[in-house]
Description:
Structural class: mainly alpha
Amino acid sequence: xxxxxxxxxxxxxxxxxxxxxxxxxxxxxxxxxxxxxxxxxxxxxxxxxxxxxxxxxxxxxxxxxxxxxxx
Length: 71
């Protein structure tokens, strides 16, 4: 059985997302301006998402350079 490198496990994006209860705040789905293909825009939407159709629920808004994130 192969040994796991603890540093690689802790720095893995999926592991960090599961273990950090605030990680959700960095995902596009937490934004009031997020466009959900099933439900459309939220009632709290201030402006339309500039990345509509290009992002998913799990996209990190900081990495794509979004400047209209509202929570």
